């Protein structure tokens, strides 16, 4: 149920963030460690069905989380909080990881976009938007759970 602008609850209308919020251990896709708004923005730009993006992100997240120490040692962390660490990685990172994960070109692009959108959201919140936009011109982003 969603609360409208006037405060009324409207049954049947659901926000993406509500669908992606943890509901316990029901096994439904969560979108990895990526912010729900970043997923929504990436899904709008990606050439994959929006419904498949959280599943792709979950698969990518499992891959990244299993290598968290490698990311911490090998890449620049530009933001961290209680849940995630955001790393700048070389261009082509997602192409390589996509091969390991057996993602199609479109699926790789969707995951890349979601991670980049997450960084943009972090940048907006931390007043570092320009810095992060500049970084995205020469690097990619990997968001790893802590």
| Helix/strand/pairing category | alpha+beta
Total number of distinct structural domains: 1
Q: Using only CA atoms, what is the Rg?
A: 16 Å
SSE string, helix = H, strand = E?
EEHHHHEEHHHE
Shape, please? globular
- Counting H and I runs of at least 4 residues, what is the number of helices? 7
The count of β-strands is 5
Mean pLDDT: 84
Order of strands across the biggest sheet?
A: 3-4-5
Helix content: 40-55%
Termini, distance in Å?
A: 31 Å
The main pleated sheet reads as:
3 strands, antiparallel
Low-confidence stretches: 1-25
Please state roughly what percent of the residues sit in beta strands, choosing from under 5%, 5-15%, 15-25%, 25-35%, 35-45% or over 45%.
15-25%
Q: What attributes characterize this protein structure?
A:
single chain; 146 residues; alpha+beta; three-stranded antiparallel beta sheet; two-stranded antiparallel sheet; 5 strands; 51% helix; globular; disordered N terminus; DUF8048; DUF8048 domain-containing protein
Describe this structure in words.
This is DUF8048 domain-containing protein. By secondary structure, the chain is an alpha+beta fold. The strands form 2 sheets. It has a 3-stranded antiparallel sheet, with helices on both faces. Strands 1-2 form a two-stranded antiparallel ribbon. It is built from 7 helices and 5 strands. The model is unreliable at 1-25 (pLDDT under 50). β3 and β4 (84-90) form a beta hairpin. The two termini are 31 Å apart. It has helices spanning 16-20, 36-45, 53-65, 68-74, 93-101, 105-125, 129-138, and strands at residues 2-3, 9-10, 76-80, 84-90, 139-145. It has one domain (36-145). Helices cover 51% and strands 16% of the residues. α2 (36-45) crosses α6 (105-125), α5 crosses α6 (105-125) and α6 (105-125) packs antiparallel against α7.
